[in-house]
Amino acid sequence: MDTTGNPELSVDDLRFAVKRSSRRRTLQITVERDGSLLLSAPPEVDVTVLRDFVIEKREWIYTKLAEKERLQKQVPIRQFVDGEGFLYLGRSYRLQLVDVQAVALKLVSGRFRLRRDHVERGREAFVDWYTIHATRWLWAKAREFQSRMEVKPAGAKVQDLGYRWGSCGKGDWLYFHWKTVLLPPHIAEYVVVHELAHLHQPHHTTEFWLSIERVLPDFERRKIWLAENGISVDGL
């Protein structure tokens, strides 16, 4: 992949990381979940064209940034105390601290149970638990849809992807953020199908979205929900 070109582009108060790729044919602006901006472009596009494209899309960019800021202010920071709610597949389960338990954390009888001697490492315990369960759930979903999507992923790996829900790697591996398993099932399902579609189409072309629509006719609603509400699963 060709990554030559300008590493950054500034237009007034907007600063973009510029990613050039020989596989790309069009310009695309991505507003990441942390509010950072990415401008993807073919290698040969002149910086003047990039700047004009940003100016044309400036109103849309400011709107998206305002939405991100509004949503981030609403994210509660969860505490590892009795009664606190923690998400799993869109449902909130209350936390119960226990003195004796074979493992650090488990979900049983409608409650997350965290061993009291792991409270200081509560986030680590939850991330480990989510990672294990996300790997199983997301890979099962990928296998459920792979024949309909006409793809054969090599497998699924779950890790911290920063502000991305998923990605595709070399050898047709699927990568998902562990937070994906906090989303409602139908939204997490959309994330899986989205990444499966990337095995055919690396970019968000018309054919890419059509391939998703064939298996998820209501994908647009799921996509909008994720954009508007995905940030709310943070706070761990």
Q: What is the topology, as strand order, of the major beta sheet?
A: 1-2-4-3
- Residues in helices, as a percent range: 25-40%
Unreliably modeled segments: 1-6
Topology pattern, helix = H, strand = E = EEEEHHEEEEHEEEHHH
Number of helices, counting only DSSP H or I runs of 4 residues or more: 6
Structural class: alpha/beta
Main β-sheet, in a few words? 4 strands, mixed
Mean pLDDT across the residues is 90
- Strand composition percent: 15-25%
Global outline: globular
* Amino- and carboxy-terminal Cα gap: 35 Å
Rg on CA atoms, Å: 20 Å
Number of strands: 11
Structural summary, described in words:
- It is a single chain.
- Helix 3 (about 120-150) crosses helix 4 (about 185-200).
- The relative contact order is 0.11.
- A hairpin with a 5-residue loop joins strand 3 and strand 4 (about 35-40).
- Mean pLDDT is about 90; it is low at about 1-5.
- The two termini are about 35 Å apart.
- The chain is globular.
- The strands form three sheets. It has a four-stranded mixed sheet, covered by helices on one side. A four-stranded mixed sheet has the order 5-6-8-7, with helices on one face.
- By secondary structure, the protein is α/β, with parallel strands linked by helices.
- The chain has six helices and eleven strands.
Note the main attributes of this structure.
four-stranded mixed β-sheet; 236 residues; 38% helix; alpha/beta; globular; 6 helices; 11 strands
SSE order and pairing:
Elements: E1 8-11, E2 14-20, E3 28-31, E4 37-41, H1 47-56, H2 58-73, E5 85-88, E6 91-98, E7 105-108, E8 111-115, H3 122-149, E9 155-159, E10 166-169, E11 173-177, H4 185-198, H5 206-215, H6 219-229
Parallel strand pairs: 2-4, 6-8, 9-11
Antiparallel strand pairs: 1-2, 3-4, 5-6, 7-8, 10-11
Helix pairs in contact: 3-4, 4-5
